[in-house]
Design a protein that fits this description.
The chain is of the alpha/beta class. The protein is built from 30 helices and 21 strands. Bound molecules: adenosine-5'-triphosphate (ATP) and magnesium ion. Magnesium ion binds next to helix 3.
């Protein structure tokens, strides 16, 4: 109790009142870094200790696994009790836990598996091919988005019909997709939530059971809940349940995924006697950082409106670095991180944030070269690596042979002479007979002439291999089984054929997978190997934040701006601040979308406690294309008194500090042979890059930045520039 008291004592008056309030509904609406999450943590600790409420009766939901872990750790610290009975997680992980624990009530196969976005897309592609849908007219990604949107709106394929008759193709794919997922017991992310909400509305007695269980429901990052999630909250809340929601309209960054900031407004109408708390003091950042963020977000028109203040010191100015290109930008990050390390700033307290995942590769290369260890959150994470996905697919198939996704992934990995044509034949048999691919092998064995003998032989050998492994499950632990599986199926030998460096990393990763299963066994020793594996595999698919390096190590934190929500770091590097990249090119034309990008930028700026670096490059090679990049308009929205600007000699640092945004949009001339950003060679000045051009004919001029001679305007007719 002493520890909780110590924690509660740190709260200001408004926070204290909210954390220790009597049971009832609460809305805490406040800006970044004002202690919303801290108040929520204290509230949970208080409910548990002062109201004597067991953790199993408290449900706390947040947006990312990393944020959920932070909340868990903070509560564990305060209460000093193990947290395994606590229901703290994301909407997905909470629903996953409910479905696993109450699979009987939800009438689902207890060995159900989760498919991630990539698997989902692959499945949709396959269905589209099967239905002969032209990828050019209806790209699989568009259908994926459509299906996810339908599910977020709680619409099954059968309900979608009337509403989307104009798009029959996507409708058909959705229907087929539903059938296939049901047949193979596969759940995509939205399905986890949809299945729960659907069942609860059909079975009020089950809903009642949960309503009685959850006495308190607390939701962090409430501004980003979508309709389905909000429905779930309403279903889980009984008359005796107290709900606390915590949010910030300025940090709503998921409207593209159906999140509705309006829920903040409707909450007061949907629940009786809501106590609303506003927090306006920011405890996280220095004055320079906070005021920069306040000024930026003031450019948005659609806000509830609030201004945060802090009594912390002004702190260091924000550094804006103008790099020549993405390589230079990465070198800047490395230099500063090393410098910080020398000044005793741990790697873990330094974060590199970016708008698009693809930006991380170059940064990762530079960090690796400099020997700086790092973790990537939400990028190509450990469980998404090909060798790990292959290994997991084998385990999935052992647990549930009807898992078509897993089957297709590994039936010919390593190569077993089962080509695409054979698989297509197997698919046809499965489709005609409404059975799984696995069952199609059995059928083909019984009824001759369905498959060519050679193909059938190869498939039977594969099936026998899986069967043998499954039999082992009765007397072998899950981790031993995994090890035997990797050995006997040839996955390990397959990696050994790769170049030595690649093979080494891949084998290490596979070893790490076995370690992870071992660890999981220790934590779940009451489960049978098959259930343990099923649960382990699902959680790995759900957990977007596991990586091969443990969290306790000292690693620089790399993540997209979306994943950074709710977190804080001593030093933040906000990279790629360029038009088209951030704000993203898809969002520039629509005011509503641009405002969401600005909120995302606000989230980025407010992650920094002490030092903020913002970087942008003049040229960026991304997606295998090199482009001339203009600095982001957001840079102009940060008052100059909070910043200091630095640039490499090659970079044209004056461009945005002295000119308004529009003035550095170079004119584009369709007839000119010059492309902005083109590399050219001049007999006297050497290598350079085209920055601008104007006029035509005899007066046509081109502006070039030369590596060793600065920026020059040249008459095109006389310059004799060679493109290179
Ligand atoms: P975000 O909007 O980014 O999620 P938040 O409102 O949830 O932010 P917290 O993460 O809870 O803010 O708090 C920000 C920082 O301020 C944390 O380091 C927290 O410990 C500290 N803090 C919050 N309230 C107080 C307080 N009353 N006294 C001292 N420090 C505080
Ligand atoms: Mg928070």
């Amino acid at each position: 109790m002493q520890k909780i008291n110590d924690l509660i004592q740190t709260l200001n008056e408004a926070q204290y009142k909210a954390a220790t309030a009597n049971p009832g509904h609460q809305l805490i609406i406040a800006g970044a870094g004002s202690g919303k999450t801290l108040t929520l943590v204290c509230r949970i600790a208080w409910i548990h200790s002062a109201f004597d409420c067991p953790l199993s009766r408290i449900l706390a939901v947040t947006f990312t696994n990393k944020a959920a872990n932070t909340i868990k750790n903070r509560i564990q610290d305060a209460l000093n009790i193990p947290m395994y009975s606590a229901w703290i997680g994301t909407f997905h992980s909470i629903c996953h836990k409910l479905l696993r624990q109450y699979h009987y009530e939800f009438k689902i196969n207890q060995h159900f598996q989760i498919i991630d976005q990539e698997d989902q897309l692959r499945l949709i592609k396959k269905i589209q091919q099967e239905l002969k849908i032209d990828e050019k007219i209806t790209p699989a990604r568009k259908t994926q988005y459509f299906i996810n949107q339908q599910k977020e709106n709680a619409l099954r394929a059968s309900n979608t019909k009337q509403e989307h008759h104009y798009n029959l193709d996507m409708q058909l794919v959705y229907e087929r997709y539903e059938t296939l997922c049901r047949q193979s017991d596969l759940f995509d992310f939205n399905e986890l939530i949809l299945k729960v909400t659907e069942t609860l509305s059909q079975q009020p007695e089950l809903a009642k059971q949960f309503q009685n269980q959850f006495q308190y429901i607390l939701i962090d990052e409430f501004q980003d809940t979508n309709c389905l999630q909000y429905t779930l909250i309403k279903q889980l809340a009984g008359e005796q349940t107290s709900i606390s929601v915590v949010g910030d309209d300025d940090q709503s960054i998921y409207s593209w995924r159906g999140a509705k900031v309006d829920h903040i407004l409707s909450f007061e109408n949907d629940f009786p006697n809501v106590t609303t708390t506003r927090l306006e003091q920011n405890y996280r950042s220095t004055k320079h950082i906070l005021e920069a963020a306040n000024s930026l977000i003031a450019n948005n028109s659609n806000r509830l409106g609030k201004t945060l203040w802090t009594d912390s010191e002004k702190g260091e100015l924000i550094t804006i670095f103008n790099a020549v290109n993405e390589q230079e930008e990465a070198r800047y990050l490395v230099d500063n991180i090393l410098n910080n390390q020398q000044n005793d700033i741990s790697l873990t307290s330094q974060a590199i944030l970016y708008r698009s995942n693809a930006q991380s590769r170059v940064i990762e290369e530079h960090l690796t070269r400099a020997g700086i260890s790092y973790v990537v959150y939400g990028g190509l994470r450990f469980f998404e690596r090909a060798e790990i996905k292959d290994s997991l697919a084998y385990l999935r198939l052992i647990v549930n042979p009807n898992d078509n996704q897993a089957f297709e992934r590994i039936v010919n990995v390593p190569a077993r002479q089962i080509g695409q044509a054979s698989i297509e034949k197997l698919r046809q048999i499965a489709r005609t007979n409404q059975i799984s691919l696995w069952q199609s092998i059995i059928l083909s064995d019984q009824e001759k002439n369905l498959l060519p003998t050679r193909t059938l032989q190869a498939l039977k050998m594969f099936a026998e291999q899986i069967d043998t492994l499954r039999e082992k499950m009765t007397h072998t632990s899950a981790s031993e089984l995994a090890e035997i599986c990797l050995q006997t199926t040839g996955l390990i030998q397959l990696q050994e054929k790769q170049p030595p460096e690649t093979a080494k990393t891949k084998l290490e990763n596979m070893q790490e997978l076995i370690n992870a299963i071992c660890q999981y066994e220790k934590d779940n020793n009451d489960l049978s190997p098959s259930l343990l594996l099923a649960k382990f595999i699902s959680e790995t698919t759900l957990d977007t934040h596991k990586d091969d390096k443990s969290e306790s190590n000292d690693n620089v934190q790399l993540m997209t701006l979306h994943s950074a929500k709710g977190l804080e770091f001593h030093t933040v590097f906000l990279t790629g601040m360029e038009e088209g990249l951030f704000p993203h090119k898809r969002s520039i034309t629509e005011q509503r979308e641009l405002e969401e990008e600005r909120r995302l930028c606000y989230v980025g700026l407010t992650r920094a406690k002490v030092k903020l670096h913002i970087t942008h490059a003049e040229y960026r090679r991304l997606y295998n294309q090199e482009n001339y990049q203009r600095p982001s308009r957001f840079l102009n929205e940060i008052p100059t008194e909070h910043c200091t600007r630095t640039a490499n000699q090659m970079a044209q640092s004056a461009s945005y500090s002295t000119q308004p945004y529009e003035s550095f949009i170079p004119e584009q001339h369709d007839h000119t042979p010059w492309r902005l950003g083109a590399h050219v060679n001049h007999a006297k000045f050497g290598f350079g890059v085209v920055l601008n051009f104007e006029g035509q004919g005899k007066t046509g001029r081109v502006q070039v930045k030369f590596q060793n001679h600065g920026v020059k305007w040249l008459l095109i007719d006389y310059a004799n520039l060679e493109t290179c």
